[in-house]
Amino acid sequence: MSVDGSKRPGDAKADTSRGYGLGDVSTVISVEDVTRQVAEIAEQVTVAQLDALVDGEPYLAIDDLRAGYGKMEILHNLNLRVGRKQSLCLIGPNGAGKSTILHAIFGFNTIFSGRIVVGSGAGQKDITRLSSNRKLSQAGIAYILQDKSVFPQMTVEENLWMGGFLMESQSQAKQAAERIFEKYPRLAARRRHQARVLSGGERRLLEISRALVMEPDVLLVDEPSIGLEPRYIDMVFEILDDLQNVEGKTIVMVEQNAKKGLEFADIGYVLVSGEIAIAGRGQELLENPEVGRLFLGG
């Protein structure tokens, strides 16, 4: 990889970037200001518009979803569409409901009303009320958590075996782990090392790989770049690109690094206060001046 993660000295006086969450800037927009300004530019996003962004039929669809935690509603009549072998990136200020969408799809929170379906044609399944275990084992949906979800005292190999905890036998999990090692020699070289000694990039590779043990069709990826040096961020997105475009996975991603996420994704949604404010092709959102001003530092 060409990115070495080094920083170039800059002139602090010349740095006038105004985007949200971009680091060392002379003027930083607060979360509250971003939320207010996104609400001001929000569009009326219809289901027909979401359908038009899908290549072919939707493979994962959410209809009029109201969901949250306990009695608190975070998502308000939310709709979502992504096709098979497509990727969708969710961006927005903190508290917009991005991770709540992933949690609802995987069964981590309370669903008040609405519907979540996966598959197409005669193979479509309503997974709204399924448990997380059944969504993984029966619907082919895997959740890749944010950083620090590996078991640090276990070896790389043992972490992968844990990814197959729903398989009928331990031997199946071990066979699946061997397939992972064949695909990623970098992990194979460290198979008997404790996970705690891995680099940040290697830990993220292990987290992704553990989710692949059950051979899911849909990957829910929460903040893949969080806490990583630039060279490892590039590596992680190369892995995700291979999973989508070579292995045919459908990917729904939450990514605070909006530029990187939208560069990667086929589709992008900007969320605010539990609703979709803007939806479009990833490249379209990159070129949207309002999105650029609020999230890309432009």
Tell me about this structure:
There is one protein chain. This protein has 298 residues and is α/β, with parallel strands linked by helices. It has two domains: 33-149 and 215-286, P-loop containing nucleotide triphosphate hydrolases (Rossmann fold, 3-Layer(aba) Sandwich), CATH 3.40.50.300; 151-197, no CATH class. It has helices at residues 31-41, 47-52, 98-106, 132-137, 156-163, 170-183, 185-188, 200-212, 230-245, 258-264, 282-287, 289-296; strands at residues 58-69, 72-83, 87-91, 110-118, 125-126, 141-144, 218-222, 250-254, 267-272, 275-281. The strands form two sheets. The chain has a six-stranded mixed β-sheet, with helices on both faces. The protein has a four-stranded antiparallel β-sheet with strand order 2-1-4-5. A hairpin with a 2-residue loop joins strand 1 (58-69) and strand 2 (72-83). Helix 5 (156-163) crosses helix 6 (170-183), helix 5 (156-163) runs parallel beside helix 8 (200-212) and helix 8 packs parallel to helix 9. The radius of gyration is 19 Å and the shape is globular. Mean pLDDT is 90; it is low at 1-27.
